[in-house]
Write a structure and sequence with these properties.
By secondary structure, the protein is an alpha/beta fold. It contains 4 helices and 8 strands. The chain has a single domain, classed as HAD superfamily/HAD-like (Rossmann fold). Helix 3 packs across helix 4. The longest helix has 14 residues. The relative contact order is 0.20.
Length: 174
C-alpha cells in the first residue's frame, strides 16, 4: 500500500473549464480574458474531491507539487491561493510550488521522502504532463500515473506510461 501521494495542480487537480483536457492548462494564466483572475476560470477535475477525501480517510499523506515560473515566495503564495479557492487546504499535508525546470518535482519528491523517512516504493506521483510529472518521478524511482489528455496524447513516450482517465482511478493503485 502507498503511504504518500504527490499530485500536480494544473491539469491534474483542476483545469480551465473552457478547455478541460483539450488544451494544456497554462493558457488560462496568459490569455487576456482570463489572466486577471485565472482562478475564476478553473474547476476541479471530476472525482477529485471524493478521491482526496477517501485517500485522507485511509491515512495517506497528500502533497501538491505544482510547477510555477515565478520567484519561490510568490509562486508558493499563488499556489496556496488556488488551493484555498478550491477549499482543499485541509486535505493536504504539504503544498509546494516547484521551479520551472523538468527535474524540479523529482528533486522535491526525493527531499520530502527523505525528510519524512518514507521509502520510494511507498510513494506515487499523479500528473498530466510526461516531462514535468511522470518522467521526473520515474527517474527518481517513484511510481507514477499520467492522466490522459488530448494535449499530451501525442507525446513520444505516451504509450509507455501508466495512464488513468479520472482521478478516482488513483484508488486502484494505492
Amino acid at each position: 500500500m502507498k503511504k504518500i501521494v504527490f499530485f500536480d495542480g494544473d491539469g491534474t487537480l483542476w483545469y480551465p473549464k473552457l478547455t478541460k483536457y483539450t488544451k494544456a492548462p497554462w493558457w488560462v494564466y496568459t490569455a487576456a480574458e482570463t489572466a486577471k483572475n485565472p482562478n475564476k476560470h478553473l474547476v476541479l477535475t471530476p472525482t477529485t474531491l471524493p478521491t482526496l477525501k477517501r485517500l485522507r480517510a485511509r491515512g495517506i499523506i497528500l502533497i501538491i507539487l505544482s510547477t510555477h515560473p515565478h520567484p519561490p515566495e510568490e509562486a508558493d503564495a499563488v499556489l496556496k491561493k488556488k488551493v484555498k479557492h478550491f477549499d482543499l487546504h485541509q486535505l493536504f499535508d504539504e503544498i509546494h510550488a516547484t521551479r520551472a525546470y523538468h527535474e524540479s518535482k523529482g528533486e522535491m519528491i526525493a527531499k520530502i521522502l527523505k525528510r519524512r523517512k518514507i521509502p520510494k516504493r511507498l510513494a506515487l506521483m499523479v500528473g498530466d504532463k510526461y516531462d514535468w510529472d511522470y518522467r521526473p518521478a520515474r527517474k527518481n524511482g517513484i511510481d507514477a500515473l499520467l492522466i490522459t489528455s488530448d494535449y499530451e496524447k501525442n507525446h513520444a513516450k505516451w504509450k509507455i506510461c501508466r495512464k488513468i482517465k479520472r482521478i478516482r482511478e488513483v484508488l486502484e493503485y494505492i
